[in-house]
Every structure is written in C-alpha cells, then in structure tokens.
Amino acid sequence: MSEEDASVARPSSAAQPQTGEPAARVADASGIPATRIHQDALRVVSRLSRNGHEAYLVGGCVRDLLLGRSPKDFDVATAAHPRQIRALFRNARIIGRRFRLAHVVYGDHIVETATFRTKPPQSEDEEDDPLIREDNAFGTAVEDALRRDFTINGLFLDPLSGKILDYVGGLADLEAGVLRTIGDPVVRIAEDPVRILRAIKFATRLGFRIDEATWSAMIEHAPLLTRSAPARVVEEILRLLHSGTSLGAFRMLRACGALAILLPEIDDYLGRRDDPDPAAHDRADQYWRLLEALDSDVHAGRAPSRALALSVVWLRIVEREAERARTGGSHDPGDLYRAAEVVLDRSAASARLPRKDTAIARKMISDQPRFALGAQNNPRTLLFLREPDLPESLNLLRLRVSAWGQGWDVYEGWLASYEQARALPDDEVARLRNKKRRRRRGRGRGAARSGGGEPS
C-alpha cells in the first residue's frame, strides 16, 4: 500500500439523517446467536427493561456482532439516568465528568451503561466554536443515535426482542464497507477532532473505505487536533500502534496531515512524498518496515508493550539525531543514549507521551549498539542480561531483525545468553554485582593515590 492509497469512497445511497427525528429501520437480529452476547450485558439490559427503562446494546459491539467479529466490550445505552442506574444495581458506580455514566461491575467484567444523550446546547459565545466540552445533556434513543460519530457505530440492538434499530444508515454502510460520519462531516469532526484518529482506526482495522466527504473534512480539520485533550490523543495513537494495522494507520495519518500536526519529527523524517532522492525513499521504507514488523507481532499474538511500540516509532529518529551529533567520525556508544534522551524527552513534553514508558523506550533504544558486539560469556554481560528491561530491549532487537531481514543469528545468540543468565541463582548474581562495585571503588582509590584527582 502506498501513502497515497488512503482509501476513500464516494457517498453511497445509504439513508442520511435529515432535520427532525428520522424513523428507525428495524432489522431482524436472529442471525446473531445469543451465545455471542455477554451474559452480564444481557442482565443489565433485562433489569433495566423490567423496570420500565428503554435499553439497548450499542456501538462497537453491535457493529462487530454484525460483521462476525468478537466484540471487545458490550456497552449499554438506556433512558435511565445515572442515579436511576445506580439505584437498580448495587454493583454500579457513577464515573466521569465530561461524560457521566455508570459502570456495572460483575467480578472483573464491567458493563459500561450510559444514558441516552442529545447534542449539548451551545451558549452564544460558543456559536463560532463547535468543539464539544461537555456531553451530559440527556435525550431520547434517536437523539443518542444522531450524536454518535460514525454510522456503523450508531446501531442499537435489543437482545430481548432480537431487533436492530438503525436511525442513521449504518446497516447500509456496514454492507458497503464504508465509514462516514453521522451528519455533516465538517461539523462533526470540528466538534471533536479526535474523530480523525478514530476514523483511521476503524477504517484500517475493519478494512473499510472512508467516505469522500468525511476524508475531506479530516484533511481540513487536522490542525484542530492541537485543541483536543492530550490524554485522548495519546490513547488513540497507542491504540493504533496496538491494532495490528499501524502501518496503514500511520500512512493514513500522514496522508490527511494529522501526522505532521501530532508527531512532526516523524513526518519530517519521512520527507516529502514527491522527493526524487532514492536515499529519502529508502529512509521512509525502513521506517514503514519497522511498523510492519510491529503489526506482525500483534497478528502472532504478541501484544507489544507501550514502551516497545514507542521505541519502534522513535528508533529511526533517535538514530538520525545521534548521527548528526557525531563529530570527526566518532562512534561513542553514549551518543545514542544522549540522542534518545533529547528526542524522547522532547516528545514526551510536546506530544504528552507517558514519561514512564518513554524512559523504558530510551533504555531499549540505547541498548541496541551493545547487541551488535555479540553476546560474550563474562560477568559484565551476565549483569547486563539480568537488567529488568532487558527482555524489552531484546524484543526491539527482534523487530529490527525482522524488519530488515538480517541478523537473526545475532538475536538468537543473545536470546540463548539471556536464558542462561536468567537461570543463574540470585546469590551468584549478587556476588557478581558486589565484585563489580569493589573493582570500581578500587579504581577510584588508585586514581587518588596516583594524583588523578582535581588539580590544586
């Protein structure tokens, strides 16, 4: 897939909501076996219904059930207000400020239960600024459907009657494999620019095309991502990296201009798409191969840590920074650590990346030159192999080897040495550490006796 292949589709004949409340298209859901619906979600819908509250399964779980996929979560929408939900379920707790809802807890499983929403009213001074800051105006089921982001996420399933309610044309778009906003995409994306990242997530994960009008609005409003809550933006980026489709997602981010807004150093590293320089093409190709290796890990069932995902994103940028900092052809191993510190600390501040994960990623990247030396059977190497984050550094080495197709023997040698080091008794490791400390202290005393201290 080339960077220009950010898939778009012409508007289909799917029914779009008009002014006023549209009538629901009612579809039979008998093709969805009851065994595929989580019993806890059924309990929540059933109890709400028995107590006179309209309630449905909503959003991603309905979409995934219709696509034959296994839903990750089962969410419920209801006419009951949060306090009414809390009164019906002793195992419920009310959460949220921008969006208040109830979590109904069954052991380690949570059923997120939200009250139907309507579009929040705007004050006079907000008329020129559609950004949604609060979302706690309660409404009806149809109003709730119309305020959701994409048509394929606006479907309601009544598991008790076996019916699907479609107010937004979501069934037609699911069948056509098209992703489009509910309503005017220019308005809907301006209301919440994070929908740009969500659109890319759903399009790449489901293999859907993005409606042309929606894609145009994404390009137009990409600069508005700077106004979104950093925590939400980071969470969506991390989801893209863990999706198994990060290669396509980052290419689409770049194509719509969002990458230049959110991660400008990466966009700059990849260069202009029309650059005729073969070196620029090779540089971008190596970057995409790392993301492809990360996706392969996800598909193989090896979920990457956040630190590993971040190290893949920033490895090439750190290596370029280290190369620029070198003078006179020197290759000080500390160059990479210093470059990682500069790049990742700067990125943690500007993109609000998690500092704990960026610190681990910095260590993982700076460990890579040591692997090039090959594993050696000496105390220093054994202690290196016992460092807490060493398995993560080895994972990054494996992804590098997989991306560039060479060095498997080096990786396997280090992996074998790591297994041997892990098998060492703890008291033997402690003895080696103490021996290393004594040598350091001895070198310090020797330097002092030979006049190696500061001049007087």
What report would you give on this structure?
- This protein has 456 residues and is α/β, with parallel strands linked by helices.
- Among the domains are: 3-9 and 20-176, Beta Polymerase, domain 2 (2-Layer Sandwich); 304-438, cca-adding enzyme, domain 2, CATH 1.10.3090.
- It is 53% helix and 10% strand.
- It is built from 20 helices and 11 strands.
- The chain has an 8-stranded mixed beta sheet with strand order 2-9-8-3-4-7-6-5. Strands 1-11-10 form a 3-stranded parallel beta sheet.
- β6 and β7 (109-115) form a beta hairpin.
- α13 (278-299) packs antiparallel against α14 and α13 (278-299) crosses α18 (390-404).
- Residues 1-19 and 450-456 have low confidence and may be disordered.
CATH class categorisation of the domain at 3-9 and 20-176: Alpha Beta
| Helix and strand composition category | alpha/beta
At CATH level 3, the topology of the domain at 3-9 and 20-176 is: Beta Polymerase, domain 2
Beta content: 5-15%
List segments where confidence is low: pLDDT < 50 over at least 5 consecutive residues.
1-19, 450-456
Largest sheet: spatial strand order: 2-9-8-3-4-7-6-5
Helical content class = 40-55%
Radius of gyration: 27 Å
The overall pLDDT, averaged over residues, is 86
Which architecture of the domain at 3-9 and 20-176 per CATH?
A: 2-Layer Sandwich
Number of strands: 11
> How many helices does DSSP assign?
20
Shape: globular
Distance between the termini: 66 Å
In CATH, the homologous superfamily of the domain at 3-9 and 20-176 goes by the name Beta Polymerase, domain 2
Largest sheet, if any? Answer: 8 strands, mixed
